[in-house]
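Batch manifest, entry 17 of 40.
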Amino acid sequence: MATKDRMAVLSAMMDQGVIPVFYHPDLDVCRNVIQACANGGAKCIEFTNRGDFAASVFLDVARHFAKVDPSVIMGVGSIVDAPTAGIFIANGAKFVVGPLLNPDVAKLCNRRKIPYSPGCGSATEIGCAEELGCEIVKLFPGGSVGGPDFVKSMLGPCPWTRIMPTGGVENTEVSLTAWFKAGVACVGMGSNLVTKALLDKQDYAGIETGVRATLALVRSIRGK
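Output type: structure tokens
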């Protein structure tokens, strides 16, 4: 059952600004990476459904943080169908993200009051997602469907739209400034934030430092 309501989760995602996108098959690595992100200020984490038994790993991670740090908000990404979404929601997911728009996933998430951010690549897809109750749509792949210029153009006629690009978001001042000045609600960032080099060295302090610096940069860009 969700212990954080839908609006609280959505507000936390937008306030945080950068959502770390992460997957690893090893439970201990997941715990350490997610705790490092949380320590750096990123309490909303998107754990992607990318490997064998990912739902089992997610369940163990969600149980762990429910006990040791309930402020962590675990979401799941790479969801393309409703049955898989249901498994992860039952395992503790507080928000659901996908690379595409699936109306059945939207209906399931609405029933359970779970935010759903489907992948959209056009104004029509975004409009359909909003008609299905999606508050934040995922622009995916962000860098390939128009980048910040698409966001700015979309928000002209539809200023109510909230967009979270993933793919094409770099951990640099130039990239983040372009996206946030265009009007995104938040961004998803994977290997550009939790890098392979840091993972290979199990440098969790380095991950924490990088996350903290990135969030500070976003706050500066936003003028907060």
